[in-house]
Amino acid sequence: MNKLKVMTIFGTRPEAIKMAPLVRKLQEAEGIQSVLCVTAQHREMLDMVLDLFQLKPDYDLDIMQHGQTISDITVKVLKGVEAVLQEVKPDIVLVHGDTTTTFVGSLAAFYQQIAVGHVEAGLRSGNIYSPYPEEMNRKLTGHLAQLHFAPTEGNYKNLIKEGIGEEKIFITGNTVIDALLQVVKEDYVFDNPLLNKIDYHNKKVLVMTCHRRENWGEPMENIFKAVVEITEKHREVEVIFPVHLNPNIRNLAKNIMGDTKAIHLIEPLDYEPFANLLNKAHLILTDSGGIQEEAPALGKPILVLRTETERPEAVEAGTVKVVGVEKQRIVEEVSKLLSNSSEYLQMEAAVNPYGDGRACERIVKALKDYFKLS
User: Which of 361, 374, 354 is nearest to 22 (CA)?
Assistant: First the structure.
């Protein structure tokens, strides 16, 4: 009997983190031939994750160029993936989440009449321009896919509302928990000496990420000013901010926060040290989507620096709170958690809604069942 040929496509660091443990499971699975294609929509950050999980792509489109637009990425991915699909002829293509690589890889597979499986399916914010372009990418991918691997019951319901047949949807948990549990270690030692010197036990360490396109400009300025005020009000606080490589973000962060002793502006971290930094944090401030999934697994309260989230499960569970981008609101919400131990403990103890670290196992089983390999 011929093996089921499964081709996985991804191109950015977040996709790589969440798909790497799945690729490993596919490589180990009996009856499956795994083929890995990366677009390198991100280059250096992608390579770091590939090295961490010891993955070697079968095809690397290497499309990244500085200053490229969404249209540039779209054209390169569509033509590049088309050529790979014509050579490999997979039975199914797996894509992840909401990047341009995800949507365009799905479109390329559709043009070749190849089945698409969407990992992390069913996330919706309800606003097609926030996050942009991710919200539309995942909606379009959802209508191109034949199989939908939804992390949660809420994601399942979103897909049902959009007319996806329930027999095509599998609730699996989120693969990021699989990845996270593989890399977090209690005795982890950082390469950055600053991170080893910080007193995580006696200080209240806030880890922050802030980079989303919709926060550029005044919202980001408000966020940075709020963080400065927090350190002035709460002397027990230290802030660690791995600053995005975008020069506009870096310049703004330096101008507003660069002279504040309690705020450490550091270079972006690879996935393994960043995951272990989250594990040592007291509180997390972020506009990222993925961190809203990871931090609950570590028991860390999260304040989301956005006006809405496509991950409402964590909000409902109580481990995440959306606080927006207004300075005073951010200061108030952070101060509340720093001074109100009962509210902090309630968020810390909230049950992680994103699974038990066995999502990849469930996806492989679903593929085998669908193609009648079991």
Answer: 361
